[in-house]
TrEMBL record:
GO molecular function terms attached to this record: methyltransferase activity
One Gene Ontology biological process: methylation
Naturally occurring in which organism (per UniProt): Microbispora catharanthi
Domain Methyltransferase span(s) in chain numbering: 64-158
Name recorded for this polypeptide: Methyltransferase domain-containing protein
Pfam family, one: Methyltransf_25
InterPro entries, alphabetized: Methyltransf_25, SAM-dependent_MTases_sf
Keyword terms: Methyltransferase, Transferase
Length: 214
């Protein structure tokens, strides 16, 4: 549940936002590789290991990407038949994503906004797939329940959430990091069906969660 923000909470959100905006203002952020991760390819195209049981291609449906950056993976999903909505906190990232989607000739609905305040955006869902490539792990802890609730309200029965995260202590003082135990506790009504360590020299993880069928 959302709790009233303290002054320190507001300061933390502002610090995160300013840090992210600076990355995009300064040029190409270090994460903006333009490469779709094999973990998403495996889920969408049905190749490789991971994501719990079953390695067949996921039938295209509706997808919501949280923290889409310049849109590499939203465009990838659209190219594979998905109806995609993608959200990012930084307007410059969304502008670049629009340019890339136009150049690629694919339709992606790109929204400038906060993944923890989805009710303020035109993104009602339901969605069959949520994708988050290191957005949640940078969200201040006091906004994480709101993030989980927003996805839960928009999840189609059995929807999947594929998320890449940095572990605690790996992102400096501004960004908090995340653990598997936290995911289990925070995403009530979802099942954590796969945890695959990332290939980085510090703790990173790919989490796959499945929403309940009710
Ligand atoms: C590490 S970057 C990764 C971007 C993109 N997923 C990629 O891999 O290229 C994290 C992204 O999440 C966005 N972000 C962080 N907090 C957010 C929030 N509360 N709502 C929406 N986007 C957010 C940032 O602006 C940034 O673009």
């Amino acid at each position: 549940m959302d709790r009233p923000n303290t002054g320190a909470d507001v300061d933390q959100e502002e610090a995160v936002r300013r840090a992210l905006e600076k990355y995009y203002r300064d040029g190409k952020p270090p994460w903006d590789t333009g490469v779709t991760p094999p973990e998403l390819v495996a889920l969408v195209e049905g190749r490789g290991e991971g994501q719990g049981e079953g390695h067949g291609a996921l039938p295209p449906g509706r997808a919501l990407e949280l923290g889409c950056g310049t849109g590499t993976n939203a465009i990838y999903l659209a190219r594979h038949g998905w109806e995609v909505v993608a959200v990012d906190l930084v307007d410059r990232a969304i502008e670049q994503a629009r340019e890339k989607a136009d150049a690629a000739g694919v339709a992606v609905r790109l929204l400038h906004g906060d993944a923890t305040r989805l009710d303020e955006l035109d993104a009602p869902g339901p969605y069959d797939l949520f994708f988050d490539l290191s957005c949640y792990c940078g969200i201040p802890p006091h906004r994480r329940d709101a993030y989980a609730a927003g996805l839960t309200r928009r999840a189609a029965p059995g929807a999947l959430l594929l998320m890449f995260v940095y572990g605690p202590g790996t992102l400096g003082d501004t960004f908090a990091g995340v653990t598997a135990d936290e995911m289990r506790a925070r995403f009530a009504g979802w099942e954590l069906i796969d945890v695959t360590p990332g290939t980085n020299p510090f703790p990173t993880f790919w989490f796959t969660l499945r929403a309940g069928e009710a």
